[in-house]
Amino acid sequence: MIDSPKSSSKAFSMLNMIQWWAMEPHNLPQNIANWLDERGSMTQRFEQYCQTVTVEPQRQQFITQQALGDEQALLPASQRYWLREVRMFGDGVPWLEGRTVIPEQTLSGSDRGLLDLNTTPLGRYLFKDNRLTRDYIQIGRQGELWARRSLLLLSGNPLLLTEVFLPASPVYQIDLFPNRSSLCEVKAHGAQQPKCT
């Protein structure tokens, strides 16, 4: 179990303050909508915009159903849930904060490997074979930051993934093209920090 001081409620409070929409909001910019509707691996997509994607675990532990908040309504009842909160970086720049909640019954057989991801991006595990399907994507916003949460089914077993895209993320870069230069290289040459739309 990991539960470091970095995993304070302040660091990840934005994950609990997201306004979620039942339908796609009318003011969603098209370039951002394209990212939020990504059906493949977000890790792999990020890798098109930098040299290295890394993950820093903030919290990895079992929690009770009472600790889920509104997530209770989105997952089946379970005595315990595996919680993993991470920060994802592109070339050392924070791009995403993620939260995964997994009912204990999903952690069966080979999928107990989800307990041992540590610094491995979740997408590297989920998309390594054809057992994953995505039930739905819900779009949300926290201040100027866009977010999404997805109910994923791994061999038919659910897990809930919430992703908040941080200001330096390529999600907000209209004129950035993959495989040309990383955001970090742009930043190194004195470019202004991107602003959310």
UniProtKB/TrEMBL annotation:
Monomer. It is found in: Cytoplasm. Removes the pyruvyl group from chorismate, with concomitant aromatization of the ring, to provide 4-hydroxybenzoate (4HB) for the ubiquinone pathway. Substrate binds at M42, R84, L122, E163. It comes from Candidatus Regiella insecticola LSR1. It comes from the Bacteria. Pathway: Cofactor biosynthesis; ubiquinone biosynthesis. Gene3D superfamilies: Chorismate lyase-like. This is Chorismate pyruvate-lyase. HAMAP family: UbiC (MF_01632). Keywords: Cytoplasm, Lyase, Pyruvate, Ubiquinone biosynthesis. Signal peptide: none annotated. The gene is ubiC. It is an enzyme of class 4 (lyase). The keyword Cytoplasm applies. Belongs to the UbiC family. One of its GO terms (biological process) is ubiquinone biosynthetic process. NCBIfam families: PRK11655.1.
